[in-house]
From TrEMBL:
GO molecular function, one term: phosphatidylinositol-3,4,5-trisphosphate binding
Taxonomy of the source species: Eukaryota, Metazoa, Chordata, Craniata, Vertebrata
Keywords from the UniProt entry: GTPase activation, Metal-binding, Zinc, Zinc-finger
Superkingdom as given in the UniProt entry: Eukaryota
UniProt entry tagged with the keyword Repeat: no
PROSITE patterns: ARFGAP
A single cellular component GO annotation: plasma membrane
SUPFAM superfamilies: ArfGap/RecO-like zinc finger (SSF57863), PH domain-like (SSF50729)
Domain (Arf-GAP) ranges: 9-129
SMART domains documented for this protein: ArfGap
Pfam families: ArfGap (PF01412)
Protein name: Arf-GAP with dual PH domain-containing protein 1-like
Keyword hit for Oxidoreductase: no
Length: 205
């Protein structure tokens, strides 16, 4: 048994050393030390945490700490990061931002879910919600005085080139309507004291 484990470990090392698998399949971080057994990709520790959230799609194992079966290694050898990229990133729109390992976790999570969970880039010209000119959703806004977070409805319109903010979800009129060319949005995790903290600023006319 020990001899078989050592043999499988050596086989895995050979697949791992391939140039295409030298960086995380999702964020490009060098020397990934985790694997998605079901997708056949080599990924970094941070991205593996996101894959853990979609166990029905991605089964994650550690390269160094997990036990490996020969069939799993053969699957990795037949797939790998290059094939996954050619498949799941075949039709990424030119305007779509591909996060790197320097970006925050929320950007990487949306990128990973878009590729593997929603499969947005498998087919050419597949219309998705963010490309039809209108995006509406709920963001948790921190209060200016009490710093409590409350759900607020935001609407982003390409046609009107503006961002609208509604205090109540069923409100007909926005509290604030801002032109897109005056908006600046940045992730400020330390300032907001939240891992997904987003600061939106704009110029008042």
């Amino acid at each position: 048994m020990a001899a078989e484990d050592e043999r499988n470990k050596n086989l895995l090392q050979e697949v791992w050393k391939k140039k295409e698998n030298a960086m995380c399949a999702d964020c490009g971080q060098p020397d990934p030390c985790w694997v998605s057994c079901t997708l056949g990709t080599f990924i970094c520790c941070e991205c593996s945490e996101i894959h853990y959230k979609i166990p029905n799609i991605s089964e994650v194992k550690s390269i160094k700490k997990s036990c490996w079966e020969e069939s799993q290694i053969q699957f990795l050898a037949q797939h790998g990061n290059a094939l996954a990229k050619a498949t799941y990133e075949a039709h990424v729109p030119a305007y779509y931002y591909r996060p790197s390992y320097n970006d925050c976790q929320v950007l990487r999570e949306q990128w990973i879910r878009a590729k593997y969970e929603r499969k947005e880039f498998l087919e050419p010209k597949k219309e998705v919600l963010y490309s039809n000119g209108l995006k509406e959703g709920i963001l948790w806004k921190r209060g200016r005085d009490n710093e409590l977070y409350q759900p607020r409805r935001f609407l982003l319109s390409e046609k009107e080139r503006c961002l609208k903010y509604f205090v109540k979800e069923d409100a007909k009129e926005p509290k604030v309507e801002v032109k897109i060319d005056t908006v600046n949005a940045m992730f400020q995790t330390e300032k907001m004291r939240h891992s997904n903290g987003l600061q939106i600023t704009y110029l008042k006319h």
